Model the fold of this input.
Amino acid sequence: MGWLIASIICAIEIFVGISVAIAEKDVSMLSISIIFLFGSIFFYKKYKMKKCGANLIKKNTKKEHKESVRQEKDKLKEYNKTHYKVKHILGLPLSENTECVISKDKEKIEIIAGGNTFNLNLDKVTDIKVLTSEEIQKQYVSSVGGAVGGAVLLGPLGAMIGGRAKEKKTTTITQYLSLTYLKDNEIAFMSFELSPYGLSPFLIWQKEFIPKEKPIINL
Done:
């Protein structure tokens, strides 16, 4: 704004000077006024070019920032397509209800939680199940031997969730992911609580899972 006001004042003074020089037929004054006129035009154009350049840089920077934000959002969207938030129930050296991020590729199941990454090779996995608390409780109650039967059918998750059925009745149905695998030639379990709005990927895991070989446990 200051440059604009100064340019207007300068232009008025130059034109006044030219007018006076022509009226008084003062060649030297006219020459000086014309030099100032061309000088002012030159510096004005230079200023405009500089300002346009600055605006262009600012515009490009803003555009690059928007593009960067868009790319980060796209990366996050792609990440969330294959990585899912769950709550740890049992099976890992983590507290119950610890927030985890779980994913699966062709070789392994990966669980990230508490600053640690746990990898479970799919060659060791013998079963993947998605179960509701209602299903677990029914199997627990109908199994012979109570907690023992529940543990045999579903591992510690069966005994834990089934045991709660005796303590109190609840109308809330919770979904769980149960992973059965071999650890040092013994059956082991991992269990996670699932969000009711994010079951689809785990149902696909369950449907597509084919164990490479059935485990043989020496008794």
Observations:
- The chain is about 55% helix and 25% strand.
